[in-house]
Here is the input.
Amino acid sequence: MILLASAPGQAPSPGVGRALGSISTMVLVALIFAFIAVILQIVVISSVGYTYAVAFEQGIASPLASVAVGVTGFFLLVFLIINVLVIRRTSNMYLAAKNGDIAALKSLNSLGWAIVALIFTYVIPGILLLIAYGMINDLPSPQA
Here is the structure.
């Protein structure tokens, strides 16, 4: 399908408008699933900490368990921080798509970030961002 860009200051052509609507919906769903992933990560971090606290209080925590909990907590925090960065970038993409700013959307479009989302936000946001990546690449370049 060939999409034609509109002149500056005009509304996008119907094909571009439809594509932007589809992209914004897909990015919004990716954003929602990324938020769910953050909530799940916080629950897991809290559960690991609580379990270790109970084991330590009862005197059954060993030095090896302390190291395991520390390493697990470190990796969970790294995943959480990267997930927050993915959410930030995805929300910027959503706002650009919602406002019809094709130039900003194309500048934010990145295969690398889609793969990072695939790894660190539990697959679904990454898949949606990979699909949106192709759709954004098919958009016409904004005219100067």
